[in-house]
């Protein structure tokens, strides 16, 4: 994706406090803000996001994250306001598998804007894009300790089951319909 990419939609979403936020595709110039946002997560939240120890995002990792493979992946981010103007607040990502049927979701939000329904709206829109692109199943691996993410997945209609490969995690999965 380039900074002028217009192939994915921009949307305005309303938070629970009545504020309106722009939700748009991630772009390469978001990399420095992505790194700052990752540092704003607590160590446990970084673990929840990555499911292994990644104390900080390298520049290379952030740049790669900000240039998704648009033939398979979607990544939507929320734009910050006021003291977070110019920053991205986080958002939702869909990573498609080569089989064209399955895709993995991930979601993350800066602590300053939690509890406002923003992660839910970002993930809903990313899942709609995935369904429209023809993916039939979305899934994500979630730490058992991550009650917030498990609740969010249940709210969005995901079924939760034990991860057969890791007793510390569950798999959230959902059939997508266009
Ligand atoms: C999980 C995360 C994305 C939720 O972000 P958020 O914007 O606060 O979530 P929302 O406000 O959209 O919450 C939607 C619903 O999810 C559930 N939920 C979210 N956070 C919750 C929490 N801390 N405790 C309980 N339920 C929670 C609730 O059902 C909530 O609905 P409600 O507010 O009407 O009760 C955020 O906490 C985060 O970034 N965590 C760190 C990274 C992470 O764990 N990512 C997931 C990796 S799989």
From TrEMBL:
InterPro entries named in the record: Acyl_CoA_acyltransferase, GNAT_dom
GO molecular function, one term: acyltransferase activity, transferring groups other than amino-acyl groups
Protein name: Acetyltransferase
Keywords in alphabetical order: Transferase
One Pfam family named in its UniProt record: Acetyltransf_3
UniProt domain N-acetyltransferase: residue ranges: 21-177
Phylogenetic lineage: Bacteria, Pseudomonadati, Pseudomonadota, Gammaproteobacteria, Chromatiales
Nucleotide-binding listed as a keyword: no
Entry superkingdom: Bacteria
